[in-house]
Amino acid sequence: MIMEETHSWMNTEILEAILKASSERTSDKLTVLSTKVTKGVEEGKNNCSAIYRLHVDVEDSNKVTTKSFIVKKVFDFAIGWYRDKENSAFRFVLPQIEQFVETQLSPRLFLSLDSLLVMEDLAEKGFRNVEGSLLNFDHCALAVEALAKFHAGSIMIHKSDPRLIEETVGWEVFKDNPNLDVSIFMKSMFSKFQKEISTWPESDKYAGYFSTLVDEVDGYLENLTNRGCRVLNHGDFWLNNMMFRYSQGVCEVKMVDFQMCRFTSPSYDLQYFVASSADLDVRLHRLDELYGLYLDTMNRYLPGVLTEEQLGRCLHEDAMAYWYGMTSALCVVLSDPELMYRSDGQDFNSDVFDRFGLMMKSSGYRELIPRVLDDLARRGLLSTGRG
Fold first, then answer.
1. Which residues neighbour 341 within 8 Å (Cβ) at sequence distance 6 or greater?
2. Contacts of 94 (CB under 8 A, 6+ apart)
3. Of 312, 306, 225, 290, which is closest to residue 263 (Cα–Cα)?
4. Which of 10, 154, 335, 383 is deepest in the core (most CB within 10 A)?
5. Where does the record place the CHK kinase-like domain (predicted)?
């Protein structure tokens, strides 16, 4: 067998465990001919882990095939909370949720170690990320339906095992973690955004709103996990963390990356998703339809669990999550290539903040945001001042 030795995590024992767990090794007749490791995502798009694609050439009954797996190797700064969150989410939470809703929402997990996850390669089944554009209603509908199933399943688990949902997987990762001080990051994003739109003649009237929004960040984060109807949120639900399959149009979605899960209102995921990932038509014309689909799906599995009035109140309380998604993840989605933020495990620092400030100058972002702000103001969700 030819094996690439440049990655310390790759050895014969791990390979055998992967093949056994994935049911690829069903007999002694299966022979591993070679392995190859390539990058799973473009360099610079890794926030908490390095993603690799493991290719394994196997021979069975004189037939040679290539199997592919995704390997997620966590960066050192995130090992502790990665182990507690994503590892536990894949091993203990997702199997129960998927059984409850009778839907596979995520890739199959084959191996989990302290700093390593090995899972199925969804690309082999035709799934892919949406690159360089926002999601139309058909994509958003699939995403929100999957999200509702995830939320509903977490409520079901919470009834019998609240500690698993609240403490093992849903604890707030940003508290007491100097490497991931989201308070500083959010305040910086709002300040950068306020400074940028103050130079836009059609939007400068909203700058004052975001100037004073900075003062509300700490209070919002402090109470994030203590409000109203609570579910296990994905926590980072935007288009980069979902993959779609197509057959005469988009037909299926899978959720990936569960290291940011938190136990809070379902509206956090919804607000962040719409702000970061929905196209203009969805934002201006089809939000009620989208939220209705979410409610219908939730109540199909748990009748009466959430009313339209309750969801509306939650969405209002979680407006901060919308502003956060709009000033951070949306910048990445719409960034001009030369302004794109590249991560690979960097801590939040002034250089990162400045890069997001530059991405706010991207042509796609500059074109979209004024129309979004005007629509929010029209609906009474944004004012030209605070006070």
1. 44, 331, 332, 335, 352, 355, 356, 359
2. 105, 106, 109, 258
3. 225
4. 154
5. 117-304
Long-range contacts of 328-332 (CB under 8 A, 24+ apart): 328/185, 328/186, 328/189, 328/276, 328/356, 329/238, 329/240, 329/272, 329/275, 329/276, 329/277, 330/275, 330/276, 330/277, 330/365, 331/356, 331/359, 331/360, 331/362, 331/365, 332/240, 332/359
Closest CA to 329 of 202, 212, 236, 225: 236
Q: What is the largest CA-CA distance in the chain?
A: 75
CA atoms within 13 A on the CB side of 341: 28
Residue reference for tokens 């639900």? 237
Residue 99 pLDDT greater than 60, yes or no? yes
E strand intervals along the chain: 31-39, 49-60, 63-74, 109-113, 116-120, 231-233, 242-246, 250-255, 262-264
Strand partners, 242: 255
Residue 307 host element (H or E): none
- Check: CB of residue 330 under 8 Å from CB of residue 365: yes
- Kindly state the average pLDDT of the residues 208-217: 94
Tokens 């070679």: give the residue. Answer: 34
Q: Strands 231-233 and 109-113: what pairing?
A: unpaired
Find the mean pLDDT for residues 139-160. Answer: 99
| The pair of three-digit structure tokens given for residue 43, joined into one six-digit string | 């360099």
